[in-house]
Amino acid sequence: MFDTVIFDWDGTLANTHSVIVSCFQETLQEVCGLNVTRGSIERCIGIGAAETFREIFRQRKMLFNEELILQLVEIKSRKQIIQRNSVQLLAGAFELLEILRQREIKVGLASMNSRVVIDALIDTKGLGKYFKAVVTADEVEYVKPHPEIFLKCAYNLDSLLANCVVIEDSVFGVKAAKKAGMRCIAVATGVYSEKELEQEKPDCIVASLKSAKLYDFVLR
After folding, report:
1. If we measure between CA atoms, which residue out of 217, 215, 5 comes closest to residue 108?
2. Binning pLDDT at 50, 70 and 90, where does residue 169 land?
3. Degrees (nearest 5) of the Cα angle 91, 92, 95?
4. Are 166 and 177 in contact (CB under 8 A)?
5. CB of 136 within 8 A of CB of 114?
6. What strands, in cross-sheet order, belong to the sheet with 133-135?
7. What CA–CA distances, in Å, run from 149 to 79, 163, 183?
8. Within its chain, how far is the Cα of 20 from the centroid?
9. Using CB atoms within 10 A of its CB, is residue 37 exposed (0-12), middle (13-18) or buried (19+)?
10. Cα separation values, 154 from 70, 114, 116, 164, Å
């Protein structure tokens, strides 16, 4: 049995997909006059808002500076906070967090979303008691698939890497977890298919957080 479980947030614990896409689209339209497809944004979910905006500009060969990126991230974050009540936890999320708490397993959250957004969502959903450490995009220099965010979360939890299992829905997150030297469960609850996740060689792939296979892997 592992003594530490580190979760991603978007697409792993919460169904934020539609809100994220619409907030990116609205922000880019309002500030830059850009109409961006859902697909362009979806394929970047997991690397953080700042890097997503940069990637969108790179794809269009548009010039940008970090001042603009910061402005876009702030506007997008405000929009997400306004829509926080429309975000729902994914099936099995609360039950899994509660069981881990009862088993006294350390739980961390490592999200490439902004700190203000994550704090607002955790507060809205009443989940503060479950996370012993929360690391967001604001606290790291490198984005997933770099392992920094998971390494920092494990450090804050005072956990050995070998005793950590990461639960992730994105290919970027799976890559980051494996690079960090942690075990990884991939859940096909985000925009990536089981086939895409399998290519990154997670230790386990499940369809949802309610999976008996997930519970067996974490609590064995």
Report:
1. 5
2. very high
3. 140
4. yes
5. yes
6. 133-135, 106-110, 4-7, 164-168, 183-187, 204-206
7. 24, 16, 15
8. 12
9. exposed
10. 28, 19, 21, 7
Residue 11 identity (one-letter amino acid): G
- State pLDDT tens for residues 46-96: 899 999 999 999 999 999 999 999 999 999 999 999 999 999 999 999 999
Find where tokens 């609590």 sit.
219
Asked if 9 and 164 count as a contact pair (C-beta separation under 8 A), the reply is: no
For residue 117, the model assigns a pLDDT of 96
| The two structure tokens encoding residue 56 | 């969108």
Place of tokens 């947030």: 9
Q: How many CA within 13 A on the CB side of residue 123?
A: 8
Model pTM score: 0.93
- Check residue 123 and give its pLDDT: 97
